[in-house]
Task: structure prediction
Amino acid sequence: MTAVDPTPSAPRKRLRPDQVDLSVSLGPLTLANPIVTASGCFGNGREIHRFFDVATLGAVVVKSITVEPREGLPAPRMAETANGMLNAIGLQNPGIDAWLATELPWLNRHGIPIIVSIAGKTAAEYRFLAERLRDQPGILAIEANISCPNVEDRDIVFACREESTRDAISQVTRVSSVPVFAKLTPDVTDIVAIAETAAAAGAVGVSMINTLLGMAIDVETRRPKVAAVTGGLSGPAIKPVAVRAIHQVHQALPELPIIGMGGVRTIEDVVELILAGASAVAVGTATFGNPVVTRELVDALPRWCAERDISSVAELLGAVQL
Ligand SMILES: Cc1cc2nc3c(=O)[nH]c(=O)nc-3n(C[C@H](O)[C@H](O)[C@H](O)COP(=O)(O)O)c2cc1C
Result:
């Protein structure tokens, strides 16, 4: 006798994309969906708001803001590389006072979930910026971009050393009225140790990875392709480094929320970073080629999940099978 399926003709219930729960939590923060913009690749969203409603993203991480306005580095500031790009922009931004006066009101008027990236030359500058942001309306979190040279320590990037990571992050967490994320550089031997240090200094999570330091030379002119000689490498070429770094930190510190970024372009890239351990995924370089890529990813994610009967994006978090 052969076994009979009791419901042979019952159609399999398929999840619809609108039934997928896209919300993600990062410690005390909840985002409506995990797709956010990577600092420096979206400005404050003003230009791109012409193409779609930027408030539909999980959050906008704004271009890093400094104490004083900065004009940035001399041109050329960008160069294409195989599957990526080098940039040496030099944190061009209007400075905290102008940003608070003009950009923050614009972001709030449009209901955009805001994560403010700050960058300093000294630990005291990080503190000053966090103080200026204290109790300002509409700010979900601060992302302290500590992938910057520390002028008080031979210009060594803050996030390359545990001590200066602790100094900068604790200055911010001491005064901030919102959760703080530490943005880490992959240019270190042990990124887990830096993430642990940032968490011990009060960061609720980490953002990773910033660009990798690179260099490219024009062989005809024999000159570096960016005027600053070296620049930050981003784009698809760095994605495996991002996946590895996120995986390492998530395995060591599973409770530490991670905003992951590095080379994300497609929905598969988004899912790959979440499987490695990122709760939210930021998109940077891909926006230059396709200004609406973040919006497309917000639409694609529930479809991707529904096709696989995954009812909540949170189910994918750190779910790599080892
Ligand atoms: C042109 C450009 C400017 C950037 N500016 C900043 C910045 O101001 N602050 C920051 O934390 N990261 C900055 N980044 C790094 C990105 O936020 C991101 O960490 C990195 O590019 C990796 O992501 P991607 O490959 O998707 O671009 C910048 C990257 C690029 C390409």
Notes: Residues 293-307 form the longest helix (15 residues). The chain is about 30% helix and 20% strand.
